[in-house]
Amino acid sequence: MRLYDTLSGGVRDFAPLRPGHVSIYLCGATVQGLPHIGHVRSGVAFDVLRRWLTAKGFDVAFIRNVTDIDDKILNKAADAGRPWWEWAATYERAFTAAYDALGVLPPSAEPRATGHITQMVELIDRLIDRGHAYAGDGDVYFNVSSLPDYGKLSGHRIDDVHQGEGVATGKRDQRDFTLWKAAKPGEPSWPTPWGRGRPGWHTECVAMCQEYLGAEFDIHAGGMDLVFPHHENEIAQAEAVGDGFARFWLHNGWVTMGGEKMSKSLGNVLAIPAVLQRVRAAELRYYLGSAHYRSMLEFSETALQDAAKAYTGIEDFLHRVRNRVGAVVPGEWTPKFGAALDDDLAVPTALAEVHAARAEGNRALDAGDHDAALTHAMSIRAMMGILGADPLDERWESRDETSAALAAVDVLVHAEVRRREEARARRDWAEADAIRDRLKEAGIEVTDTSDGPQWSLLDGADK
C-alpha cells in the first residue's frame, strides 16, 4: 500500500510501526456550530482508509478528537447568552449525528480537549525545561526560532511565518505561537504553574495523540487547511520534546463553492440536515467520498444529483438481483479495486470497477445468466462495503414503501422488456412497438443502451 505523505511531498510505501496494527489520529471538529458538508468530508475520506485497512486484516486504532474549548466557541456562546459548555455539547451532538447519518464508523476513542488539561500542562512543562517555550504575562509561547527545521511540513520559511494570532505583550517574537492562554474575566480556566488559563489549540492535539497513540504513531490526518499553522505547530512541539510523532501526514481537499473553501465566515455553507432534505444519506456519503481525497470537491446541485443517480443505479441493480435470484451476500472485491485503494486511496478508479461490475451484471441478468449476475452483485457489495455505502447494508436498507414497490415493479417490467427483446430478435417490430407503448402508457420509458435495455419512470427517476 502506498500513501501520499505531505511531509515528504510524495507517495511512499506504507508499513505500520507495529506489524498488524495501524494507529491513526484525525483532527476532529471544533464544535462551534452545525456541521456542513465541508466539515464531514474528512470523516468520510478517512473512514474509507480505516475500512480498507481493516479489510486487509489490520487492527486499527482510530482516534478523532473534539475541540470543545476555543475562542469561537466562547464568543458564540456569549453572544447567544448560553454557557460555553452547553454550547459545545450541543454542537458536539450535532457532529456525532452527522457522522452517524453518513455511516462514518465511531472512533476507537473521541477525546475532548477539556478532558486532557493535565497532559497539556505536562507537555508545556517539558517544552519549557528544554528551552523551547517561555512564559510571559500569564501566557506560554513556543519559541519558533529554537527549532532549526520549523516549517518543514508546510514549506514556510521561518522569516515569513505569521501565526494569525494577535499582538501580545508577553510574546518575545511575533512568529511564536501560543501554548497556554492566561484567563480572562468570565472565561473558563484551569490552574497551572503559570497561573489560571486555558489551552492553546495546537497543544491539545499533541497531548491527545501521545495519550492514546504514544510518542510515535502511524498516520496523522486532517483537512489541508490544517497544514499550517496547526499541524506545523504540532510537529514542532512533539519534536522539541524528542518524540517521533506521526510517520505519515495525510490531508484531504476542501469542499468548495465557486472556487472558495466552504466556511461559515464566507457564508457558503451547506448544513448536513439541509442537504439531507435533497438526497438520501447514502447518496450524500457516495458524493462526498467519490472524489480522490486529496482533490478539491467543487459542490454543485448537478454534481450532487448525478452522484445520487449513480448510487441509485448500483442500488437498483442489487435489488434486481435479489428479487430475481435470491439473497446477495458480500463476496470478494476485484483485483483492480484493491489495487486502486492501495494506490493512495484512488476511490474514483475503485468506483469505476464498481460501475463496470454493475454494467456486466445487468447484461448477465438480462441474458438470464443468474450465476454471473449474482457473482457481480456479491463483488459489488464487498466493494461498496469498503467504501461505506453498500446499499444492502442494514443501515442503508431503510427504503420506503415506494422504493419497495419499485423493486417489485422491476420484476414485472423486466418480463415485458424481455418479450420486447424477443420480438425485436424475430423482427416483429409491431409487437415490439406495442410493448413499448403499453409501458409508456403506464409511465415507464424503455431506452436501448450499450448495457442493454434500461427502464425509467417518465418523471426521470432511473431504474
From TrEMBL:
Q: What CDD domains would the database entry show? A: CysRS_core
Protein's name according to its UniProt entry: Cysteine--tRNA ligase
Locate the motif 'HIGH' region: 29-39
The record's section on Pfam families has:
CysS_C, DALR_2, tRNA-synt_1e
Compartments where located = Cytoplasm
Task: Read off the lineage from the record.
Answer: Bacteria, Bacillati, Actinomycetota, Actinomycetes, Mycobacteriales
Domain (Cysteinyl-tRNA synthetase class Ia DALR): give its ranges. 336-397
GO CC terms for this protein? cytosol
